[in-house]
User: Which sequence fits this backbone?
């Protein structure tokens, strides 16, 4: 049949070639002959039938095949309607066509458009062509073309790529591309090779590899199908009924599907059958009014079944008996048993490595959460930890800092510059707010901690509502500069975003700043003196009022900077402060009041704990917070003074 | 603890505390007045919704009373009593919702050709109640929701038990002052976050709704029910006031006030400070639970936002503004601030036009409240109740050092020397 078609085409080519004006094309060239061989399907242009034509072109080994495929893909291939001769064509002036020979691409001349028809491959065909082009691209002299081809194969691999890839490895000169090709070759071997020994070797070569692509290649191999039989067949893995892997309901449904058992009579069917058989207020001789328990209904149904009016009643006991009578098992469907078992071993090996790496990733997550808590709490560690002033408006200072960043970004569009501006501005704004609050409210309430708590609550309520009035209730963006976008990717599992690294670094900087100010400066010395004994400090010429004011301002200012950092990572809303205030206090209290290292430990504990609980129950972050708070309440039972408790004179201060 | 209750009073209780008689009298007058003016029983001057507001306010007064007892008298600034209030509401709400849905489900199944089985009824109710959170089975927490007496017991027992366990843990490890406040706030936050989850079994952030429709009383109009609830709330408030006044009178009251003023000294005198504190904490939690159980059928809906820590902070605000350390102060504060709050946030207060900016009270009321709270803390620690001292010319006890007063009563003497 095919031969016949070819003959007809060739004949027509020969007969009508004279009608084509100024044609000097080589219709006998191997490429043209090959095209003519598949002429019908090429012109038909259907995704379903085009396969052999493209394969033949790709496998032809002709120099022109690549050009033909590319031009065809770009809709630059035409054919003459009468003869079926293929040409390349480009639009020429005056609605004419400029023709080129498919062999060698030599220009033939300019001609009328009418006798020619354009091939318009649809997207499906273009996809097939690109797949076929891959083998040419794999050997392309340009390394970037080769890399592109490898990416294309990675994305959408096909059995036909395997041979092309194997052929392209030896000639590869760039070491990285060579390694990539070899890896891809092994992956494709796993997926498409016919030789089981080859596949197993390839699978074993990936032991412990963390790549997602490896798992994607291996997973289909270990696919199983659940089946049931009287006895266990060879190579099948038995499955226990009633375990997590196979529920009773699913096992029985399989039996019913295979027509090995009758469907269990569920309450709805039972009810419907009874209703259908109501006869003058009775069902099978039982009064309808008495059918208000499951037992009565079952008895009535059994009576109906006995009369042949309903399918036999299948009770729970019948189900159990049926399940016990059969063996449930799983068989590999993705690959031959030996390959599947090798894949399973490799996967379980990979699984262990993945778990290890996930732990590392979780640790990184916990670390970054800890640094956020530390940032939020460090201001509090100064005002609450050092001064002993409880400031419930601390969260609102964080919010003020974040909103300062937002406002700065409204005026300074450059994100890097605006963040650099926002940090000192946020410090200035919250420093002034802190100083104002200390002078107006807190100064009058020293030694009255409960009242300080209440008054600062009042300030907190007012500030929150004020922010709501000014900025509205919707979240405002605080955009990070471009160089903080993206993440540091260590492997396919462990990665950390640059923002989190920046926050971590900022937390370390703050720790250093705090230590420097407290231990190495005049201010720090005076702060420590005033908090230990204000009267003695005053006798030494220190003004306690001034020191308290500055300390409080310093703590508040740091909260403002923390607000900018947190705003980059979370949303800026008027209520963002409340999200952090309880955690911050917990961090300070758990760590031990009055000790910055305690706060650091507290933040680490709280952060790790929250991430750990989230990991155990990933769907539910609310529950994680609940359990974390409960844990902290219990923790305080055992170490009421926190992880690092102050001893001696400092504890009494 | 028992010896306190047995101590014979020197004079009759009411004679020593005339304010109790005055308060009960005023409460009775108020209740009768509202009844006469209501739509349900009287001439209809006061709308049903306002009667409900007044009834709810009485419940808030009751929980404020509890707060005053635990904070103003015992010195424990609890930021968790609104959580107990909410738990009480949830406990009664579960029964209300269950019983009402049961009636609906029974009615709809009565039309079916076969009489329903218990399982069908239960499934129907569960489907109706938990459809919104995508569940169709009763969580274990609803095990006794069908029984009014058991749920009423839960109103008392659940807040009581939580307070008992939490208080025992906290007081045992000598957590005091601001630490205790933060811990109670954390407890409240944990509870609210827990209830916000859909699988908490209490319908997540949907909460419980339709609580104003009492099961089996569908034919009684809301105008009548609102007055009945007002009476119930007034009765509860009156009894609660009597109970609180009795608790703070006599030797027991002296001990808890002494704990507020100097805990260590009371401990050295041989009193079991922890037991006293635990009793007060648990007792007030139960009072709060009862108040909540009366409040939410009038409000009609309860959701986890009602338990958020901010609610408990507002409770402290009311008591502080009313004047803590005196029972009537708490009642005045709760009634005054919550009614004023309703007025301002309800959009009834006139806007103030400043030319360039119009002050809309819906937006600015919270700021005013926050600032006035700061002002009260700073300048009038006795709150509104302090005004009565001007009339009765009552003085603080003469102690060593500076004037401590009820506002500074929680101070240790060495701190007040300034």
Assistant:
């Amino acid at each position: 049949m095919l031969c016949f078609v070819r003959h007809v085409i060739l004949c027509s080519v020969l007969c009508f070639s004279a009608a084509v004006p100024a044609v000097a094309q080589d219709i006998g060239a191997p490429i043209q002959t090959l095209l003519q061989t598949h002429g019908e399907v090429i012109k038909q242009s259907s995704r379903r039938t085009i396969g052999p034509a493209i394969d033949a072109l790709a496998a032809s080994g002709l120099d022109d095949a690549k050009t033909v495929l590319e031009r065809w893909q770009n809709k630059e291939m035409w054919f003459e309607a009468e003869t079926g001769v293929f040409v390349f064509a480009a639009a020429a002036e005056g609605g004419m066509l400029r023709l080129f020979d498919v062999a060698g691409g030599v220009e033939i001349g300019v001609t009328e458009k009418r006798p020619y028809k354009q091939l318009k491959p649809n997207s499906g065909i273009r996809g097939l062509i690109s797949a076929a082009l891959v083998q040419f691209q794999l050997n392309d002299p340009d390394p970037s073309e080769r890399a592109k081809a490898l990416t294309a194969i990675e994305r959408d691999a096909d059995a036909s790529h395997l041979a092309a890839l194997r052929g392209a490895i030896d000639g590869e000169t760039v070491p990285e591309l060579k390694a990539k090709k070899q890896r891809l070759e092994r992956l494709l071997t796993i997926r498409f090779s016919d030789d089981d020994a080859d596949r197993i070797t390839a699978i074993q070569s990936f032991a412990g590899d963390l790549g997602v692509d490896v798992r994607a290649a291996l997973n289909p191999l270990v696919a199983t199908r659940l089946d049931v039989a009287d006895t266990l067949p060879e190579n099948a893995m038995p499955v226990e009924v009633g375990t997590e892997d196979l529920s009773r309901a699913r096992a029985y449904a399989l039996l019913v599907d295979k027509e090995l058992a009758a469907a269990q009579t569920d309450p709805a069917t039972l009810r419907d059958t009874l209703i259908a058989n109501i006869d003058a207020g009775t069902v099978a001789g039982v009064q309808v009014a008495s059918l208000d328990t499951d037992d009565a209904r079952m008895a009535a149904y059994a009576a109906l079944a006995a009369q042949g009016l309903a399918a036999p009643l299948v009770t729970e006991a019948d189900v159990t008996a049926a399940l016990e009578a059969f063996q449930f098992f799983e068989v590999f469907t993705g690959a031959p048993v030996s390959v599947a078992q090798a894949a399973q071993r490799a996967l379980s090996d990979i699984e262990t490595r993945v778990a290890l790496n996930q732990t590392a990733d979780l640790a990184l997550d916990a670390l970054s959460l800890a640094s956020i808590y530390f940032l939020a709490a460090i201001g509090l560690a100064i005002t609450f930890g050092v001064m002993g002033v409880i400031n419930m408006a601390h969260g609102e200072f964080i919010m003020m800092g974040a909103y300062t960043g937002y406002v700065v970004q409204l005026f300074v569009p450059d994100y890097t510059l605006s963040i650099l501006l926002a940090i000192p501005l946020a410090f200035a704004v919250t420093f002034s707010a802190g100083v104002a609050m200390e002078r107006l409210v807190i100064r009058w309430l020293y030694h009255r901690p409960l009242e300080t708590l209440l008054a600062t609550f009042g300030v907190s309520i007012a500030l929150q509502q004020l922010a709501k009035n000014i900025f509205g209730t919707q979240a405002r963006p605080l955009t990070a500069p471009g160089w903080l976008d993206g993440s540091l990717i260590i492997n396919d599992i462990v990665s950390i975003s640059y923002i989190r690294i920046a926050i971590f670094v900022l937390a370390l900087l703050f720790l250093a700043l705090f230590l420097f100010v407290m231990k190495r400066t005049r201010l720090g010395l005076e702060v420590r003196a005033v908090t230990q004994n204000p009267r003695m400090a005053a006798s030494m010429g220190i003004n306690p009022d001034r020191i308290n004011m500055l300390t409080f301002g310093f703590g508040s200012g740091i909260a403002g900077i923390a607000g900018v950092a947190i705003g980059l990572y979370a949303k800026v809303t008027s209520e963002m402060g409340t999200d952090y205030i309880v955690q911050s206090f917990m961090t300070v209290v758990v760590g031990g009041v009055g000790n910055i290292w305690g706060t650091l430990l507290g933040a680490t504990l709280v952060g790790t704990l929250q991430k750990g609980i989230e990991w155990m129950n990933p769907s539910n972050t609310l529950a994680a917070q609940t359990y974390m708070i409960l844990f902290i309440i219990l923790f305080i039972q055992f170490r009421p003074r926190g992880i690092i408790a102050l001893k001696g004179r400092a504890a009494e201060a | 603890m028992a010896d306190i209750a047995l101590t014979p009073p020197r004079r009759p209780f009411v004679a020593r505390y005339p304010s109790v008689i005055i308060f009960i009298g005023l409460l009775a007058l108020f209740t009768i007045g509202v009844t006469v003016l209501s739509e349900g029983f009287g001439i209809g001057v006061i709308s049903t919704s306002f009667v409900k507001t007044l009834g709810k306010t009485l419940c808030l007064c009751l929980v404020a009373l509890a707060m005053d007892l635990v904070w103003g008298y015992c010195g424990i600034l609890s930021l968790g009593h609104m959580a107990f209030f909410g738990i009480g509401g949830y406990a009664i709400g579960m029964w209300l919702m269950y019983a009402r849905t049961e009636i609906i489900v029974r009615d709809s199944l009565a039309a079916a050709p076969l009489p329903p089985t218990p399982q069908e009824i239960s499934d129907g109710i569960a489907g109706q109640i938990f459809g919104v959170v995508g569940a169709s089975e009763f969580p274990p927490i609803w095990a006794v929701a069908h029984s009014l007496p058991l749920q009423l017991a839960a109103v008392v027992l659940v807040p009581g038990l939580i307070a008992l366990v939490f208080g025992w843990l906290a007081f045992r490890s000598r957590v005091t002052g601001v630490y205790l406040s933060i811990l109670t706030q954390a407890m409240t936050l944990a509870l609210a976050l827990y209830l916000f989850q859909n699988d908490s079994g209490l319908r997540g952030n949907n909460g419980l709704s339709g609580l104003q429709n009492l099961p089996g009383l569908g034919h009684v109009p809301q105008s009548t029910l609102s007055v009945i609830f007002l009476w119930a709330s007034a009765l509860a408030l009156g009894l609660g006031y009597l109970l609180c006044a009795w608790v703070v009178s006599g030797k027991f009251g002296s001990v808890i006030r002494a704990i507020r003023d100097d805990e260590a000294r009371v401990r050295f005198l041989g009193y079991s400070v922890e037991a006293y504190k635990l009793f007060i904490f648990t007792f007030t939690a139960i009072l709060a639970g009862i108040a909540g159980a009366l409040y939410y059928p009038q409000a009609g809906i309860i959701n986890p936002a009602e338990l958020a820590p901010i609610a408990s902070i507002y409770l402290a605000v009311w008591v502080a503004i009313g004047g803590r350390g005196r029972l009537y102060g708490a009642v005045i504060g709760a009634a005054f601030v919550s009614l004023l709050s309703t007025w301002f946030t309800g959009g009834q207060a006139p806007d103030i036009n400043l030319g360039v900016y119009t002050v809309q009270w819906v937006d600015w009321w919270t700021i005013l409240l926050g600032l006035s709270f700061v002002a009260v803390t700073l300048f009038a620690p006795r709150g509104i109740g302090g005004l009565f001292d001007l009339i009765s010319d009552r003085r603080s006890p003469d102690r060593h050092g500076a004037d401590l007063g009820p506002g500074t009563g929680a101070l240790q003497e060495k701190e007040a020397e300034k």
Summary: The CA atoms of residues 363 and 511 of chain A lie 20 Å apart. Chain A has four domains: 2-126, 139-222, 265-313, 357-576. The longest helix of chain A spans residues 337-386. The radius of gyration of chain A is 39 Å.
